[in-house]
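Teaching note: in complex prediction, the entire set of molecules is handled at once rather than each chain in isolation. The prompt given to students was simply: 'Predict the structure of this complex.' The entities are:
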Amino acid sequence: MTEIAAPPHPFDAAVTLRAAEDGRTRGRTTPDYTNMVGPFGGVTAAALLRAVQQHPDRLGDPISLTVNYAGPVADGDFDITARAVRTNRTNQHWQLELTQDGVVATTATAVFGTRRDTWSDTELDVPEVPSAETVPARTLPEFIAWARNYEMRFVEGAVPEQDAGEHPDSTTTLWVRDTPARPLDFPALTALSDVFYPRVFLRRGRYMPAGTVSLTVYFHADAAQLDTQGDDFVLGTARTHRFSQGYFDQAAQLWGRDGTLLATSHQLVYFKD
Amino acid sequence: MTEIAAPPHPFDAAVTLRAAEDGRTRGRTTPDYTNMVGPFGGVTAAALLRAVQQHPDRLGDPISLTVNYAGPVADGDFDITARAVRTNRTNQHWQLELTQDGVVATTATAVFGTRRDTWSDTELDVPEVPSAETVPARTLPEFIAWARNYEMRFVEGAVPEQDAGEHPDSTTTLWVRDTPARPLDFPALTALSDVFYPRVFLRRGRYMPAGTVSLTVYFHADAAQLDTQGDDFVLGTARTHRFSQGYFDQAAQLWGRDGTLLATSHQLVYFKD
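The expected output is the structure of the full assembly:
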């Protein structure tokens, strides 16, 4: 009798890294997470985080991650080099590069560390929203392949219909989770922080060339707090502060259904109108 | 007759870099910008930005900067290496390291680029505050040397007195400028983005060990918009979203007096209570 192992979740397949020469690790883009140009930036960020997580020298869990999208990632293999530039008693600083055929496509820095009990407080209020079950699921347009891996229930700021016209603000709030369902972990949370389509589409009511230049994620929860979320929905909200001269920022929060602020995230996005 | 040149502004002295061996540049900490441990993080960030600005390969102006404070910077000389990892048509990605005696103290990444006219909008509202002239100037405690280089007029959330007791929120809003006055430019704006003392001091009403782990600045204004500010006050506001397990985030905005959103900034801070 031949036993057939279940295939991995598409997200795990997309962030699988295997050892390569010179201490590098090698991954491969998957069609499941294709964006308009190259792979979904969130999954690239998750693969970079994963490279640190599985590095033998790694200390603790993710504290912060910054990813700079320097150029397009082509379909196929990519190499990641992860270097611990400094290890302190409770934290560790990493520099990363993602290359294809020796050309840098993405750079990143990460801080990992151990956490300990201290005075704590979440000062920000959870957005007041209806429960996930009462909000209809909605898909992104078919040509955005990666979005098919997320169940999205938009509370406000859904993707505009073609020629929807201008929208007064840039806020999108949604319940979101992987589909098929998958327990939340740091790479999945990293990818979720980039799940918001470019805010300029919402404001202008139409699509246009736009791409993340730099993405930063601050992890506010530890592994145990992520475990608690299981494969439940996460509440995400994102908005822009200023659009100017071909760039805008996008600030996001990701909340657990239990009211835990799991991560805050920021990105700077290029656009061409 | 001997002509004596005016000494440079203390800020310019603190971010002066001279060419060193192997394409590196060398700077030197100045007592003017000393913090509790090592130099003020804002001036270190400004020196890193400056290293890119004066690099012969530099394209355009700053778009984003992320600085990771990996370890303390000792008083004395430091070396900066700046490497353009990828140059595109309209933007350029940099990796930087600040070392002392070959040990990495700080790493950074920066995106520089050219800007062009597009649809623009500032979606965030300017905080409603009294004019700078009607708010009294206040100094930080004498042992925080760097703060003496800033004129600070706190609208809310001034530095707590010793044993002030808990404060209900973490927001500080202030009018701030270099003293002596100095025209605003990208390095000065970078330093200003770190001018907010750690939010945990305000919430807890007391000092404790705290230090920035990672700082990101998004530049929303171009050089002409900075020039327009002259040496006038900038309105800064900062707050925290979550304090948890020895870390908290700090989100800041810097506005020109004319209502221009000049920069938004984020940092993750370590604290020990």
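Point out the following to students. Chain B touches chain A through 63 residues (CB under 8 Å). The mean pLDDT of chain B is 95.
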